[in-house]
Amino acid sequence: MRVQAILSLLSSTAPYVQDYFNVTHNILNHFGSISPYHRARHHDASEINSELPIDCTVNQVMLMHRHGSRGPIGEHRYIERLIQTLHNATDVIQKVELPHEFEFLRTGYNSSLTPHNLTILGRKELFDHGVEFALNYPHLTTNVILSSDSSRVVESARWFALGFFGFDSDVRIVTVNNTDDPVSWITPAPGPACPKFNYSFGRQATLTWSKHYLPVITDRLNTLLPGVGFTEDDIHGALFACAYDLASHGASPWCDVFRPEELANFEYERDLLMDASCAYALPDNMAPLVGTVFVNKLIERFTDSKGDSRPLYLEFGHDVTILLALSALGLAKDNPPLSPDELRPGRKFRTSELTPFAANMVWEKFTCTSSYDGPQIRLILNGATMPLTICGQDMDPTLGSCSFDTFVDANHYSTNIQFRDKTWNATCGV
Fold this sequence. Notes:
Oligomer: single chain
Order of helices and strands: HEHHHEHEHHHHEHHEEEEHHH
Structural class: alpha/beta
Number of strands: 8
Shape: globular
């Protein structure tokens, strides 16, 4: 498939999912947190108006942007095993009658993915977002960008800056290592700040769920290609190859191998991983606690409590950064919690919508001459307003926003937590 065609497909907006059999639902946007960037369709947000009233002005903006599409991290070992299995079965593949979706195997499959690094499409995502941001907020500017010290994040910040500021800009890119804050709201965990925080909590959930769906796919593909001898690890490798080929090249032959319901199961696996690694399924309420660092920084800036706030903050981090903040806010939380034994097709916690590659969390503080009294706040996540349900009945149903004072009051959990206070230390094992 041509790159331009696939990019056009990926930019299309599909209705929020009832199931994966709706032909207008673009399954290539749904690989969890390794999905290509696309405009989100947030849960219970179909009636939200994305445009502010004409009498309203955005006075302050805080952007938290995830890096763009990258190569695999850890998952490349599954892709390498798959390639070895195919290499060992070369003679079988050349002799067997291949179904049309496997014809590409006749000439072999090799991976040219570069682990960790930002891809060409990742660069484009960030440049495009910088241009779009400049168009959305032409009256706001800054001379400093704050970034995680990860090389792909710093590079993402540079591409965004090129789109936003253009050439010959004097904007400085500063990494979190060069700040005086005792704990970063961009990369707050894992590490000394919270020793108990460990991404490995997500592994068990994904292992449990994978036993429900990978054997079925393995049997199906081994029936189609007798003698190749696919293992469940190989099937994982093919699923990752689909997602990461897409992130790197804009297309993958592996994506046509899988049925929609199989890709839906893979997406759910990715959601379980992130939920248990850095969101609601972490033990001891750890994710909301660590996420308070971001929420408190947001409130500090929008209240100008230190007297040094700026109209625009451009900051770059990771999917974890965004998910921790959402956890502290109680947004996209499922009740009952996600289960590794049962697919929840109508779930709120869907990382394909929350934290795809190049995810961007935009907080706006705005005022109006007549539509609203006092400062208001709203959240735009991946190009679509995410209702601030934390404000309860005081949330405006038209914009999904609420008054800033209400927002601060609603976040009493966060404002009552301070880094390394008694609750923090007990939860994090400091």
